[in-house]
Structures are given as C-alpha cells and as structure tokens.
Amino acid sequence: NAGVTQTPKFQVLKTGQSMTLQCAQDMNHEYMSWYRQDPGMGLRLIHYSVGAGITDQGEVPNGYNVSRSTTEDFPLRLLSAAPSQTSVYFCASSYGDLSIGQYFGPGTRLTVT
Amino acid sequence: KNEVEQSPQNLTAQEGEFITINCSYSVGISALHWLQQHPGGGIVSLFMLSSGKKKHGRLIATINIQEKHSSLHITASHPRDSAVYICAVDHGNEKLTFGTGTRLTIIP
Questions:
Q1: In the predicted model, what is the mean pLDDT of chain B?
Q2: Quick one: pLDDT at residue A64?
C-alpha cells in the first residue's frame, strides 16, 4: 500500500492564483482531513470528510474548497491564493473507528508571494 | 487560553532518562491522540485513547478523563526519540484540535 500520498511536495504561487493540492489514500479509509501547520500555532483543521459525498468545515475553512467524489481522493482547492495561506499542508485519513489513529501524508509546502 | 495545552514546550534530556510530556484540555472529548513529528516533517500517529492506558514498546500513554489530562511517557530514551510530540483532542468524527507540540531533544 502507498498509504496517503500528496502532490505536489512544494509549490510557489503568486497572489491571486488558484491551485489544487491532491491527496489520495489506498487503505479504503472513510475519514479524510486537511490540516495546515504554521510555526507556533500547531496543526489546524481546514476541512474534513466522513465519506464519499460528505464534507464539512473545520477550524480555518475560508479560502479553501474540498470535494469527495470517491473514497480514495480528497483534493483541496485554493480559490485565490493569499500570502496568509503560506503554510505546510497535511492530508490525513483513518477508519474512524476510535481504535487506530490517523495516517498522515508527507505534506505540501506552499509559498504564496 | 488554548483548548489544548501541552507542557513543557521544549525538553532536553540525556539518553536513558525517563521522559514525561503532559497534555491538558478544557472540553469533553471522544478520544485523545498522541502524534510524533519527525525532524524531516513527517507525522506519525502514536496512540489514540479514550480511557486508561496504552503501551507500545518504550512508549506509554495515559489519560484521566475526569481531570482532562493525558501524559506520554518514554522509558529509556534514545536520541532517535528526538522529535516534536503533539497532543490532539478528538471532538467526534475525528475532528481534531491540536496542541502546539513539545520539542524533545535526547542527548547521547
């Protein structure tokens, strides 16, 4: 199994550009989440999904969209990039059965200039 | 006040020492997670617990639901344990709120 994969690993955007961060998992996990990690602030939940077709907002959803058309994929879209979205983004997935924790992808480092 | 507080923020210890990292939270939760972030940035889930105690190798995690407190212990610490340890509370549906982490450095 590849686990949780994220692409790209690094990205530089100009203010106002849009892009999609890709996340995929091959473990048939129902639950998937997107987090951002900023220095001194810890990880923060952006959006999450409890199954295909179901998404919900986390703590910091503004400026981001998600969709979950399949169990495997959970892309994160930046609609109009802003310097405040410079961060490291992690995708995670789990069975959601309260017995095993989340599996994290390797992260995407995004810089918005 | 943050919903999830970890202490200490930084910890340096000699190899072989017994390590304790603490996590306090302020709301009711369905579970608590302990995570390890490697110096290279990768994040690994260590424990997910809703009561009592769990052990895996040299790592032990405990939780006291009534006191809203959890601890992560490392026995016989080793330089390879050097990492950031993160506590996160689960509000249900694995909707997590994270602490800011404890940076652990083990000196040979």
A1: 94
A2: 98
